[in-house]
Design brief:
With 182 residues, the chain is mainly beta. The protein has two domains: 32 residues; 145 residues. It is 13% helix and 35% strand. The chain is built from one helix and 13 strands. The strands form three sheets. It has a five-stranded mixed β-sheet with strand order 1-2-11-7-5, with no helix packed on it. Strands 3, 4, 10, 12 and 13 form a five-stranded antiparallel β-sheet that branches. It is elongated.
């Protein structure tokens, strides 16, 4: 009888410690409280005359809480992207290779070449944003966007991994398919 009680107590202790250890080892010994979830993405984005489908990935991310998350790094298929502020003057995608732009969810990605991304004349292969304000900090329940650019198209239909790392080391991993909106 004592052996059965000892075995049962050992199993309970093992399960408890395993769950506790898992919770504390996911983020440097602290419980994970930061999280981003993908609300939608567009990997077929080609605004206006851009002609850049599969060269721009636009992701809308939600922080469900309970803690604020600050983006410090973005990876696409294991390659570190350059974290950059959005711009209002059109730039060619050929010079925006492997860059990740953080912007408020209300910002638009456009193809305009005149003025500050407000005119309607577009040029193939160029994009701009309707804001220059970066948005790397996500308070609980807020939505922002990450836009990743490539100098050439990503293979249509390919599954791709996007990893977003916060300033505290929390990691959020998403899978997106090229040429698809989801």
């Amino acid at each position: 009888m004592l052996i059965a009680i000892s075995v049962a107590a050992g199993i309970i202790l093992y399960v408890f410690m395993g769950g506790l250890a898992g919770a504390f080892t996911q983020n440097g010994g602290q419980p994970v409280t930061e999280k981003l979830i993908i609300q939608s993405y567009n990997f077929e984005l080609s605004p206006g005359a851009c002609g850049c489908s599969q060269e721009v990935l636009q992701m809308f991310l939600l922080n469900p809480g309970p803690a604020t998350t600050k983006i410090s790094a973005v990876y696409f298929n294991g390659v570190l992207m350059t974290l950059t502020s959005p711009f209002e003057n059109a730039q060619a995608l050929s010079v925006l290779n492997d860059e990740a732009f953080t912007a408020p969810s209300s910002a638009l990605v456009q193809d305009f070449t005149n003025g500050l991304c407000t005119a309607t004349a577009g040029t193939a292969g160029e994009i701009c944003f309707t804001t220059t304000t970066p948005d790397v900090t996500y308070a609980p329940t807020t939505v922002g966007q990450v836009v990743i650019t490539f100098s050439s198209t990503v293979t249509y239909g390919s599954g791709n991994t996007v990893k977003i790392v916060s300033s505290t080391g929390a990691v959020n991993v998403f899978t997106v398919e090229s040429g698809i909106a989801g």
